[in-house]
Amino acid sequence: SLTMNMYLFVYDLIQFCGHSWIFTNMIIRFMTFGKDSLADTFHSIGLVMRLCQLLSVLEILHILIGIDKSRLLPRFLQITERIIILFVVINSQEEVQGKYVVCVLFFLWNLLDVVRYTYNMLARMGIYYLPLTWLNFSLFIPLYPLSVLAKGFAICVSLPYFESFGTYSIKLPFPFTFSIYFPYVLKMYLIVLFAGMCFIIQNLFSERMAHLGTGNIKNKRS
To answer: What reaction does this catalyse (predicted)?
Structure first.
């Protein structure tokens, strides 16, 4: 319906504005301060980044109620990956926040999202601009595996801090013999992360085929 289309357009616009602000901010800060800007990336743009990622949880709801025709599982995996890395790994360990990997992750995420939300906004209006469509369905080929490697690296970098501070590790007192050692949970999550990557890439390639096909752009008018 027109109302739902308008709502999705506004949602994409808000996300586009948030990610564009982060992306522009990162580039300007890097051009101004050089390498010094990388260490405090999280402190300067972390709040907007967290807001954008929390807002992206709505995309799961959009699929569940049927206003977005994307497949649920790949989208769910992509969103939860970011939420876990951003809120559980980076946000909880101040020492990790200053690492260069955070800057790399934010750069990759925002580059992908600025393109994706621009494409989505125009698609809501029935506009399919060929270079943008190609970019939207091709940029993930190099960038998504790189972002997964950066996520894995962020987890590896955070492990010593989770081990020494005991963050999220739970040890129940006697008579319970139950304990959760969080670094083990993160190591297991690494396996999930890389297994999920294969599944998501496969899905992204099938989406690319559906939209680009043999060079013909899908010209749906919504």
So the answer is: (3R)-hydroxyhexadecanoyl-CoA = (2E)-hexadecenoyl-CoA + H2O; a very-long-chain (3R)-3-hydroxyacyl-CoA = a very-long-chain (2E)-enoyl-CoA + H2O
